[in-house]
Amino acid sequence: MTSIVSEPVTVMPIERKDGTYALRLCLNQGLLTPGMTRSVMEIMETYPGVTLRATTGQRMNLEGVPKGKLDEIVSTLGVSIPKCPPGVSVCPGGELCKYGQQNTREMGDRLLEVVKANGPYPFKVKSGVSGCGMACSLSFVRDIGLVGIAKGWNVIYGGSARHRAAPGLRLAKGVSDDEALAIIAKALVYYRDTAKKGERIGMMVRRLGHDVVADALK
Ligand code: SF4
Q: What would be one Pfam family of this protein (predicted)?
């Protein structure tokens, strides 16, 4: 098939129970450019049965990709990688939402750089940046959460939305952008150096105890 891609899309193939594949589009902050959107639409028009579905992590999956067409579709779209790099979920924030206390998009980009700079980690790190306490990016139950308040950011660490779901530890209240990112960098290094392989931040905090972790990150 002739490539119609005006902008390549990086995808992660995921095998499904019925033998088809999903292709996860490795987006950041859920952003699909016009070029990426055209490419994805072309695939859906060319391959009937392939659909587009939003994920909970602000990414998109092309679902229903037949195994026999996987290589062809991947090479048409762009490149395939075994795992999408970490992403950050970001709500519209103060730039767009009437409730927003802090701007989220630039902070989300800065947070992503901090996450990338301090890995690799024992397991995945999911982050959410919310412009106010309504926490539409699920900041209280992400591994790393930022919640905007009038005076800055509250920093949340080790929240979990899985079994034994629980909000994370609040590491700081009302801190500036730079202060929040410095606290998060320290907390990520602690996670990297302290957790067992396969252990999420929330599991590590439960194992060690809130007080121990809070003391270590003062
Ligand atoms: S968290 Fe607050 S600022 Fe963000 S979308 Fe929700 S209500 Fe708006």
A: NIR_SIR
Q: Is the CB of 145 under 6 A from ligand 1?
A: no
Q: pLDDT tens digit string along 149-192?
A: 999 999 999 999 988 899 999 999 999 999 999 999 999 999 99
Q: Distance between CA atoms of 161 and 28, rounded to whole angstroms?
A: 21
Whether ligand 1 lies within 6 angstroms of the CB of 92 is answered as yes
Q: Is 210 a domain residue?
A: yes
Residues 52 and 114 in one domain: no
**193 occurs within a structural domain:** yes
CA of 37 to the centre of ligand 1 (A): 26
> 138: Cβ below 6 Å to ligand 1?
no
pLDDT for residue 52 is more than 80? yes
Closest C-alpha to ligand 1, atom 3: 100
